[in-house]
Amino acid sequence: MFMLAVGVCWGWLGDRNLALASIFAWGPGGAAAALVGKRYGKNKIGKKRKKSLEGRLAMLGLSWVSVFAVLSWNDNFSPEQALLVSALTATVTTATELATSNGLDTFFCPAAAMLILCPAHFLFQ
After folding, report:
1. How many helices (DSSP H) and strands (DSSP E) are in the chain?
2. Which one, 43, 55, 79, 104, has the greatest CB density within 10 A?
3. Cβ proximity of 1 and 111 under 8 Å
């Protein structure tokens, strides 16, 4: 998946920050979800009730901050646009992570982030 993100975002669109943002939407947020969910996760949610609300909120927050940090360095987005796009990207990525299981989030979360970030690149260019 990472090669696809780099190929599409950096190779085709010419914006390496979009590749970074799509990976950062999942990586740090997914790690935070696992750590917070295992330690503090009391309210189980999802299909199999193995994931927690607390973990999802940690993912949402850290994904939002991570994507916003990357997009803030990108000249294509104003601060307001970066805030909006990062919020939408984090929300979609968190929902995707909740819906996947068996390690498939490694593929689908960055792909979901790209589905938001690539059109935003064209919209705000």
Report:
1. 6, 2
2. 55
3. yes
